[in-house]
Amino acid sequence: MSNEKNELISKKVGYEAMLYCIKAYWENSGSNDLTDILSGGEYWKGTDEPADSAFWEYWTEAIEKVKSDGPMFKELK
Predict the structure, then answer these.
(1) b/e per residue 33-66 (b: at least 16 CB within 10 A)
(2) Model-level pTM?
């Protein structure tokens, strides 16, 4: 994770990745409880390590999915 610390994405990519990440979490856990979803994004106090390594994987996979597949929904023209 240390080599990813300075990596930046745009607001648009971040938003689209969030949608993919929440969808992946829901598909894998079956939970639609927002507190369950948000608890995966916490960090261990005093570290840069996410408390839930699986949630971190959902997030990094979601960013790559946005980069390779584009938005989850087609843009209106």
Answers:
(1) eeeebeebeeeeeeeeebeeeebbebbeebbebb
(2) 0.71
